[in-house]
Amino acid sequence: MTKNINVIIGSLRRGSYARKIAHNAIDYFPEGYKASILEIRDLPLYDFDYDDPEVADVRVPEEYTAFREAIKASDGILFVTPENNRTIPACLKNAIDIGSKPNGDVAWKNLPAGIISHSVGRMGGYSSQKNLRLALSYFDMPTPGQPEVFLAQSPTLFDEEDRLNEDTAQFLQDYVDRFVGIIDRQLEARGNG
After folding, report:
1. How far apart are CA 164 and CA 57, in angstroms?
2. pLDDT band of 12, cuts 50, 70, 90
3. What would the mean pLDDT of 82-106 be, rounded to a whole number?
4. Alpha carbon of 86 to those of 90, 91, 165: distances in Å?
5. 192: pLDDT strictly greater than 70
6. Is 142:113 a contact under the CB 8 Å cutoff?
7. 146-189 pLDDT, tens per residue?
8. Among residues 145, 78, 146, 66, which one has the least CA distance to residue 111?
9. Dihedral Cα 45, 48, 50, 51, nearest 10 deg
10. Can you name the CATH fold of 3-192?
């Protein structure tokens, strides 16, 4: 059985470093895994009126439903995000909020999550990763422990073909391997391994 990993990029820009990192990371998953980008670009801003049973005159946007179903069909989520004003970009927070409702059917609940953060500066997206972990902590999503992935000075990590340098690629491969281990253990515990 192929295991499905959705990769969510916290940047909407086509040429973003986060997108380049994500495309590299997709290749690090082993046979039997299918990792693909789940776009968040077209998600309308979250509005609780869509999920409030007391509000009958609005409908849940199709984009919300499709996004939530894609998350629920995942065996794990890999987040790749830059830092924006010392936190996660608004588009990523919006996606997290959409997946967090309705209250009785949270899409994120218990899904293994991997987090790769980066910045063009020296901090490697530390603040964005910590804020993302805080937002996800409510959903009981298991994540790989140390070492966490904070990629500093991200523009310097790529060659002319947008491939990551050898040291960074090995570091991310190790992280993906640990992430895959969490997914495999969780599926085994559920009897889906």
Report:
1. 49
2. very high
3. 94
4. 12, 15, 26
5. no
6. yes
7. 899 999 999 999 999 999 999 999 999 999 999 999 999 999 98
8. 78
9. 130
10. Rossmann fold (3.40.50)
- pTM tops 0.90, yes or no: yes
What pLDDT, on a 0 to 100 scale, did the predictor assign at position 169?
97
pLDDT of residue 124: 80
Per-residue burial over 127-137, b if 16 or more Cβ lie within 10 Å, else e, is bbbbbbbebbe
Length of the chain: 193
Q: In what order do the strands lie in the sheet with 76-82?
A: 33-37, 3-9, 76-82, 113-118, 149-151
* Amino acid letter for position 145: G
- Given a contact cutoff of 8 angstroms between Cβ atoms, the answer to whether 116 and 83 are in contact is no
Domain edges within the chain:
3-192
- Residue 86 CB partners (closer than 8 Å, separation 6+): 127, 128
